[in-house]
TrEMBL record:
Coiled coil stretches, renumbered: none
Biological role: Cleaves the distal alpha 1,2-linked glucose residue from the Glc(3)Man(9)GlcNAc(2) oligosaccharide precursor.
Glycosyl hydrolase family 63 C-terminal domain: residues covered: 242-751
Record protein name field: Mannosyl-oligosaccharide glucosidase
Topology of this chain in the membrane: Single-pass type II membrane protein
Enzyme Commission numbers on file: 3.2.1.106
Organism whose genome encodes this protein: Lentinula edodes
Segments for region (Disordered): 314-334
Main localization (coarse): endoplasmic reticulum
Domain Glycosyl hydrolase family 63 N-terminal: 1-200
One GO process term, biological-process aspect: oligosaccharide metabolic process
Positions with biased composition (Basic and acidic residues): 319-334
């Protein structure tokens, strides 16, 4: 963590966890590989400092290897002061412990500082903090002579912290610092005496208490600075040094650039070298920030089996817990390795985001993506349910508004993990082809961009592309995923015969549970216009997701040899596709719609042009010769409906609710939905023969360019990629950096759908 020492107020804005309230100019991993390490650049205009953090993994030994980190800073504006205090802290919970080996000194420490520790998982280890060669401390200022014995030194603290509270390290450390500061500044209350420079007062107390499991080391800098942190596992028998970082980060950057250009090459249609170089830097950053935003979470969550809205109370009792407990309760602890939509605003796992994240992560590192996917699959409970938000433990809960903490076990979310599974199966199939067959990219005058995976399946991270390894993995997830699929079909089923609806299948209709009067949070499209809540509602997006889910289960079953299951899934998929036509197509409106029930128990369509009405097209469920495809493409390309210069709007510009209320899904542009549209065009409607092939190609070219150009422009203008984009100006808005599914721009740029 760090704060400026140009004034006393800056400590109240100590930077630690990613927080939009810090109003940093920008921060991003510019290069990051989960197997090697990376480089992060942070621009803090308030404190006039650009921080660069470099992280390097060094394999060795039997307990996870070693790592090294370098923290360095320089003024953003060289003509202005840049005075910074940094605090590096370390802590441990559970079995084991940490001690400071360096002898304590009452007025601070000079030179290297060393800690040693041990735990059952890590065995013996040491951590050293080493100053760079040319750091300068703040040495002058009011009353400097009084504090001369402490100036230019590192200061420290150590204290015991209760189990489960290390995550609150910032509060413990700053409390210790402020307690000492209040004592030190007391003699200077008289304005005539003058107040000492903040660098002399805002210091840790240089005390370590018995039983400490939280330690902190504080440094002060004036201008440019650098220090290194080395973690050495005893079993590795290695000693790291500054040259380890000098050489290792250089090698990491070179290998990252080479691999990135191979996996995610910027295509030839961006031919200007300056533009191409800038796009590559941008693409590397958003990919790195997505992967660098992966976190490991552990803890319990809050669920409430008994809650329901009145229109959901017909749900089957078998999917409620047998527990007699009323109201919210804590679950048993669970673990999750997951990407996060936004480190600053959504630092936790989101079910429907994760499928999109894994498309990108899996394209970079298949094995890492599957490790994340397996953790999500392991969350599927005995009934087949997965909470849509994974808020595991007190630290995760501290970032979530109270009204969103409790998860309800009959609430679903778009099953996007299926998208990640399908993409993985496709990569395995392509990797098994010869180079000429593997080059499946399209050429609309832009050049092919698909890199043959036959060349990379032996590289680190691609072991899972071997068909035997892939088959073993898919067999391992098949049963819980099938349980999850059955849960969806059982708990989210909609009603057909009760309202005299005519459909070829009497079973395949679906309704999101858990909606409120104005929101369908479970759909992911929170405030998108819907009809009034009713037990007889049928939701177009959910039945479309279930068609895709059925298709994915069929593909898995075929891959692992479960042929009878594959036939069954194929039959369900066909029944769903038939019912999408029978229950959701409105001939008069020439669009797909939700269905609802009026006061006379008659079924009617609720039609709202926007992302919702595109779902059968967006998920490639329609055939290229569908009689409905032309009307859908008309809506997509119409500037008075969904088309804008910056991407497709979430709601038609002609809709009466466009841009009203919360305006979350009532117009703003979402990159992941545009990605689905582009993927449908690129992989199906612009390549397969049909009456709209040429038009699909034209729309694809224009839409792809609009999305890339606008997200890139806003990144250069603001330093961030954003949760969504204004459909009228293209400006980024809401959460940032949002390198969850907005990072799909890299896949759009390199045409990996």
């Amino acid at each position: 963590m760090w704060f400026g020492t140009q004034d006393y107020a800056s400590i109240s804005q100590t930077r630690h966890a990613c927080d939009q309230g810090d109003q940093l100019q920008s921060y991003t991993w510019t290069k990051y590989d989960p197997r090697e390490g990376g480089v992060q650049v942070i621009k803090d205009a308030r404190n006039n400092v650009q921080l660069t953090t470099e992280f390097l993994k060094v394999p060795g030994g039997d307990h996870g290897g070693n790592w090294a980190a370098r923290i360095k800073g320089e003024p953003l504006d060289p003509l202005q002061p840049s005075r910074i205090s940094t605090i590096f802290y370390l802590g441990m919970e559970g079995l084991g412990g940490i001690d400071m080996d360096t002898d304590e000194e009452d007025n601070g420490l000079q030179g290297d500082i060393k800690f040693t520790g041990s735990s059952p998982e890590l065995d013996d280890f040491s951590i050293r903090i080493v100053d760079g060669p040319s750091n300068t401390a703040v040495t002058s200022g009011p009353h400097s002579e009084v504090f001369k014995d402490r100036i230019g030194k590192s200061h420290f603290m150590g204290q015991p912290v209760p189990a489960g509270n290390i995550w609150q390290a910032k509060e413990f450390i700053l409390q210790s610092l402020m307690k000492r500061a209040q004592e030190v500044i007391a003699p200077y209350r008289d304005p005539a005496a003058g107040i000492p420079d903040p660098s002399f007062v805002l210091q840790l107390p240089d005390e370590i208490y018995s039983g400490s499991n939280l330690y902190a080391v504080q440094k002060f800098f004036d201008g440019e600075f650098q220090f290194d942190v080395f973690y050495e596992s005893a079993s590795s028998r290695q000693t790291l040094s500054s040259s380890t970082l000098d050489e290792g980060i250089t090698a990491l950057s070179t290998s990252f650039d080479q691999r990135f250009n191979k996996v995610f090459p910027t295509p030839s249609d961006y031919s200007s070298k300056s533009n191409k170089d800038a796009l590559e830097t941008f693409s590397q950053a958003i990919t790195s920030n997505l992967i660098g935003g992966v976190g490991y979470f552990y803890g319990n969550s809050i669920i409430n089996e008994k809650f329901s809205y009145e229109w959901d109370e017909d749900d089957e009792a078998e999917d409620r817990s047998a527990s007699d407990e009323k109201g919210p309760r804590l679950t048993e602890p669970k673990k999750l390795l997951t990407a996060t939509p936004s480190r600053s605003f959504f630092p936790r796992g989101f079910y429907w985001d994760e499928g999109f994240h894994l498309l990108h992560i899996g394209a970079w590192d298949n094995d890492f993506g599957l490790e994340i996917l397996k953790d999500w699959i392991d969350l599927i409970d005995d009934n087949g349910w997965v909470a849509r938000e994974q808020i595991l433990g007190e630290e995760a809960r501290s970032k979530v508004p109270a009204e969103f903490l409790t998860q309800v076990p009959n609430y679903a979310n778009p099953p996007t993990l299926t998208v990640a599974v399908t993409a993985f199966i496709n990569r395995v199939k392509i990797a098994s082809l010869g180079p000429s067959d593997a080059d499946l990219g399209m050429d609309f005058g832009m050049g092919s961009s698909q890199t043959p995976l036959t060349e990379v399946k032996t590289e680190p991270g691609n072991r899972s592309l071997d068909p035997e390894v892939a088959t073993a993995f898919l067999k391992g997830i098949y049963k819980p995923l099938k349980r999850h699929y059955d849960w969806f079909r059982r708990t989210q089923r909609g009603q057909i015969k009760q309202y005299g609806r005519k459909a070829r299948s009497r079973t395949e209709a679906y309704r999101w549970r858990g909606r409120s009067d104005k929101h369908v949070l479970t759909s992911g499209m929170d405030d998108y216009p819907r009809g009034p809540p009713h037990a007889g509602e049928l939701h177009l997006d959910l039945i479309s997701w279930m068609a895709l889910f059925s298709r994915t289960m069929r593909e898995i079953a075929e891959f692992i040899g479960e042929n009878d299951d594959a036939i069954s899934y194929g039959e369900i998929e066909k029944a769903i596709l038939d019912n999408i036509e029978d229950l959701h197509w409105n001939e008069e409106q020439q669009m797909y719609c939700d269905a609802n029930v009026d006061d006379d128990d008659e079924s009617y369509h609720v039609c709202n042009k926007g992302y919702l009405s595109l779902f059968p097209f967006m998920l490639s469920l329609l055939s290229p010769d569908s009689p409905h495809l032309g009307a859908i493409l008309d809506v997509v390309r119409d500037p008075e409906q969904l088309w804008s210069d910056y991407g497709l709007r979430s709601l038609s510009a002609s809709h009466p609710e466009y841009g009203t209320g919360e305006n979350y899904w009532k117009g703003p542009i979402w990159v992941q939905m545009n990605y689905l549209v582009l993927g449908a065009l690129h992989n199906r409607y612009a390549v397969e023969e049909g009456p709209y092939k040429l038009r699909a190609q034209e729309i694809y070219r224009e839409l792809r360019k609009n999305i890339i150009d606008n997200v890139f422009k806003e990144y250069e203008r603001t330093g961030y990629v954003w949760e969504q984009y204004d459909p009228n100006t293209g400006y980024g808005q809401r959460s940032h950096p949002f390198t969850g599914w907005t990072s799909l721009v890299t896949l759009i740029l390199t045409e990996k759908y």
